[in-house]
Records
---
Amino acid sequence: MAETTLAPPPTEDATLLDSNELVLNMGPQHPSTHGVLRVILKLDGETVLGTDCVIGYLHRGVEKIAENRTFQQFAPYVDRMDYVAAVSNGLGYCMAVEKLLDAEIPPRAQAVRVILSELNRVASHLLWLGTHALDIGAITPVFLCFRERELALNIFEKYCGARLTTHAFRIGGLQYETYDTFEKDCLAFCDEILERVKEYHALLTGNRIWVKRTKGVGVLNAADCKDYGVTGPVLRAAGVAWDLRKAQPYCGYENYDFDIPTAENSDTFDRYIVRMIEMEQSCRIIRQAVESMPSGPIKGKVSKVIKPPPGEAYVSIEAPKGELGYYIVSDGSLQPYRLRVRPPSFVNLGALDKMCRGSLVADVVAIIGTIDIVLGEVDR
């Protein structure tokens, strides 16, 4: 009798029914990639076998520009990376330079920095929610979210004249004192957002189409988040209560009472819930900062000519998308010898392949949206 041989077991990337794999380009001119992101999809029918992200279409050499600008001149450049969260970008950079200078920031400047940063967090999450819902097929939320986001942008405009690339801070503190109705406008914004979040929940949280498109989609558990270095709402949705405002407090965050929202299922729906709660917690912080606003100067004792002593510094903050870090090396001159940015969008995007494998093509759109990336920060 002839010996029977068994076929080898299928590998992880094996196709079904011996069909050929399809390689499909998604982007870089695709509205749901949130910028010039090219994703090469390897498909078996509509099932994603793997992805490959191609970036660099928007590269502007921001880190190299820093070496050819003075410390003050470079400050506005960081606002153009994550242009949805320009205030956070500016805060991280100023804090890194201030660490080199060993500068002390006045309490009033710290409080205003917290208020503007949390306003920016809410504005960033609103833009994310509207565009993410639009990607999945819900049109109404984008109009509502932009309506509320305008309220935050109005405050930015009144404070420093800019709405999108908001250059709010200066090395050593603030450039501008708050305007007359600043505190009143911030409290009114919080009141409005807390009411509108209920409206968003009514539209989406129990919507069976929304739940079907997000539950169990793009799962990235806590262990995988740590392996890929993922931070922010994506990490907290995996049950890890890591937030730099609590873990490594800065700007006086240790003086405010707020919670770190977490979830357990590590999917797209949980990341949505975490960001919704974060908006409420940001309003909670803003209220406390406004009610306890100290008086005094808005800028510390910093020379007009910024010339840090030789050394290096790394400062990271909790930006809306995750950990945003700045590493600066000074050689004692007027310009940074080296500057490196640790952008959350870039790092979190590295987990896209892991999140997409086994999903459908339609789920890729939802997964890219749930990471919440901005290509200006990915490419720099």
---
Amino acid sequence: MSLVLEAIRANAAARPNGPALTGAGVHLTWPDLQREIEAAAAWMQTCLRDLPPGAPVAVALDNGPAWVVIDLALVFLNRPSLPLPPFLTAAQRDHALADAGACLLVGPSATTTDPISAVVAGAVVSARVLSGAEKLLHAGTAKITYTSGSTAAPKGVCLSQAQMEAVAASLVETIGAEFAGRHLGVLPLGVLLENVAGLYPTLLAGGEYHARSLSDLGFANPFRPDISRLADAVEAVDASSIILVPELLRGLIGFLAFTGRRLPSLKLVAVGGAKVSPQLIAAARAVGLPAYEGYGLSECASVVAVNTPAADRPGAVGRVLPHLRLETAPDGEVMVSPRPFLGYVGAKPHEGALRTGDLGVVDSDGFLTITGRKSNVIITAFGRNVAPEWVESELLAQPEIAQAAVFGEAAAGLCALIVPSRADLPGTALEAAVAGANARLPDYAKVDRWRLVPPFDPSRGELTGNGRPRRAALHQSHRDFIDQPA
């Protein structure tokens, strides 16, 4: 039995008037949510009647109560789901549908010619039968997640419901159910970090989940967010917790610092997806944002370690969740066990510890610090190994710098591509910002030269879906600067 569905059932009996799910003008109590899940499951069962029993159902909906209900209805049916985050390109989306062998696509009902439609949690949605070939998935697959990857053909990660709910239950245990309160979903629900680490723990802990559309949150253009709308949404729902990627945290810090506004309802702002400097955490707390860094991977169902109000060490990513074990290889690579995921679509079942590709150290108190990606490590002309993420985090801790990417393979010194936080910043301010970052770095990791560049452009493949720089694409765009001799 699903822990999340069991929690909904228990709350429906014990708290019949308690709020469970809100958004898009919809306010569902726990019994309402249970009824919506069962009704959506009955509708989808009809849609799936003549389709292969093990084939996944793809979900391409905006954030909202309907997404939540469809997701949980698929859990109820024991049918694999394939969430399609909005940042996937058309090629990546088509690849995911074909690669996973999806048999049905649930999306918004745009026309009256939709073959099958239903009202789910107040929204009209449609189901379209897909004609792709059936694929053999790993036994027990409940969800297949495709990240943006570095190509048009990212790998599908197969996860069981037990694996995902183990993460959610560990988060409730580690953070404390008292922090459930009102959680506002800020990231796309199609991303595991929001689905498994935001939605599921809130429901397990008996909190209220607010699912607003991404445009309502200020993300009509996800790479040019309207931070004022995000702040308005947090204030409007009196949110007690949110999950952000570092770029959104940086934007929210700047907005609050500039306007003087505060968001006192927030008790927990979890931050993940890329390295966060201690200075950024300190800046967040200075404007009243209780920010705590975490670390995870899709292959671990989103979260591996997290700082909490009770156990916090800025600069580290926190202690490993209690259901996992972590060790480091002789070369520093972080390895996670036991069996965090089932395997990739079309590949052999995963066995043994997961080699994450991340470099890290665990201190005597059990806090994990991630120092960089094994594949990204720069070896300078002096033979020193430098993780570019480390240097970039120091650059990004400077309020004058919005984006940065560091290079220097086989070079005598490091160089950086820098996007200023404002177009009208004088050169002296940026020089001071780079100097400020360098002051916190040893000589071998200092930035010797830098170039101002336009914002990294996802349409040119320069950013991943969660805002990480794609180094190969940036190198190609600025080869003349990066590769110039010392």
---
Amino acid sequence: MNDTTAQPKLELTVSRQFTSWMAEHGCSLLFTTYQTGKLFLLGLKPDGKLSVFERTFNRCMGLGVDATGFWMSSLYQLWRFENALEPGQRHNGYDRLYVPQVGYTTGDLDIHDIAVDRHRRPVFVNTLFGCLATTSVRTSFTPLWQPPFITKLAAEDRCHLNGLAMENGSPRYVTAVSRSDLADGWRDRRRDGGCIIDVPADKVIAEGLSMPHSPRIHDGRLWVLDSGNGFLCTVDPATGAAERVAFCPGYARGLAFLGPFAVIGLSRPRDNKTFQGLALDEELAKRGGESRCGLLIIDTRTGDAVHWLRAEGIVSELYEVAILPGVQRPMALGFKSEEIRRTITVGPSEPLH
């Protein structure tokens, strides 16, 4: 008798015009699936069909993109990926070859959002310690800022700090699930304890959200995913008032903008207490639907979902999504194949003195 059980597979399906939207805007997409430890790079093949490239990194989550590459967090490391190709050069049909060039060992900090500041330095949300931090060659991290209600820098995940919005190359806003100053205290206020904090002002500017994620500044406005309620919102920093722009049929984490379009990551909530009892479930039931995993593209001018990608099978949770402008078909190197041994790039010569 054969007792082997078939492994669940991954199946990605897209709306009819998803690839046309990518071609029209000349971009590719990245997203991470920390539950299955996968980094996905979506582009277009020469025939216009979707190109899907994936690499395995244990618990990969945050992504921070800049002009030449991106940062990505994994279980206990922070990786810098650099494009190894020259302009116009291709590698096996791909126009970007991202190499994990530098890695920092941070320990398991539960790193969430990552951004690149005006000094080209990675700034990340250190969720375990409830602070913003950057890398160090001597220590696991260098603290940069912590919320005014957190009285001690401790590995206790007190408020579940998670999201980071940058403005002019500096941290401007962050999101937290609650204002708790107790170890793991954020779980007690999942439904309505969420807040947005103005970093330079050390001030909470919005409250009453449900497990907010992914604050972003775009087109002069502050955007946020009110994940527990299921909405993409704009927030008035002066009053804290949130205006709902679009419903998200899944637990929303990961937000990127391209012109008037918002690209949102969706997850199917885990069957545990962290995701139970949220208003999102009630909203889905009211609309006669179930939570989805994948990507949703919203036209922010109308609030309409104009394109989508759905992930079925082994992947049920996403964390971050990012846009690669001007990239047609990206790929990346990982550590499970021999190709990384043979990919060697040489920089310009420099004098000894």
---
Amino acid sequence: MKFLIADTYYPAFLKSVYADDPKLAMRPYASQWRTLMDQCFGTADYYSENLNKLGHEATDVIANCRPLQTQWAKEHNLPLKYTFTYRPYHRFRVPWIQKSWLYPVLRAQIQEFQPDVIHFHDPARVDPSFLREIRPEVRLITGQIASPVPARADFSQFDLMLTSFPHFVARFVEQGLASRYFQLGFEPKLLSRLTEHKPGYSVVFVGGLSGSHAGRTQLLEQIAHSQPLSLWGYGLESMGANSPLRSRHRGQAWALDMYSILSSAKIALNHHIDVAENYANNMRLYEATGVGTLLLTDQKENLSDIFVPGQEVVAYSSPEECVELIQYYLTHEDERLAIAQAGQQRTLAEHTYQHRMQEYLDIIADYL
């Protein structure tokens, strides 16, 4: 079968990549695409590459990357009727439809590639009318979400909604949507991109701080009062002037920079977004263990289905316990290294994107 994976990247990340190489936007589509994939942002080309390994034909599209997509249009003699007008980006407020070049280019790419299945990584911002338009040309339309669902999101045109939130599956089904549980994963080829070095940080956290992360902020502030925490991520402006996180903040880190930080730490701290409720699901579970760093994560009822707590990862149930565990594993190196190694072995054995793509194929077989 043929698969088209439609993704969107953080605008700030795209801006940083093109700012680092001002000539990138003038290069051919294939060159821009390869440069972006080699950044290893999000799931990069992990879905398509592993689907190809499993005997199918797949490709990725970064639908919201203006230089990339307009270059594709230029190379395929696709006239764009409207000029692009920049508008500030506000999470969950600015839909794709405001970018007048986005749908025409994506529509043409679908016609060019002729996929059997199209998969959207950012389904909440896909215009249902666009899905109705492409439906006659594809066999299956799937989406994937593990974040707060915007009030105006319309998933009615998706044939299947995948989520790593077990509780979302039941809620989607109650709404009349077909939904299946689908975990995230790790891409082993990342390991060849990381430089071998000794840990340079004691405890690191990489992630966002916002209204959706109230519990996370409280935890990190308590840890920062007494532990050697280094912090990267967006949302620092939401912190109070006296927050201890301000002095621990090192800026933002994406893609390979993020993986380098995780791999250079003794302990990688994880805390799930509030909407995850009591379920372990996020990418940090696999990113931290995948690079061989001890993962210290919040206790969730399904964590033992993914890793063995105490043997492959370490879990805490309160800020106080988290502090105690940090202190313990910073001073018990052999135990820390043993758990980190076991966690990496589990991830590479069961939680890679090749495993996930085989699971994806097994799931969609029921809906084709």
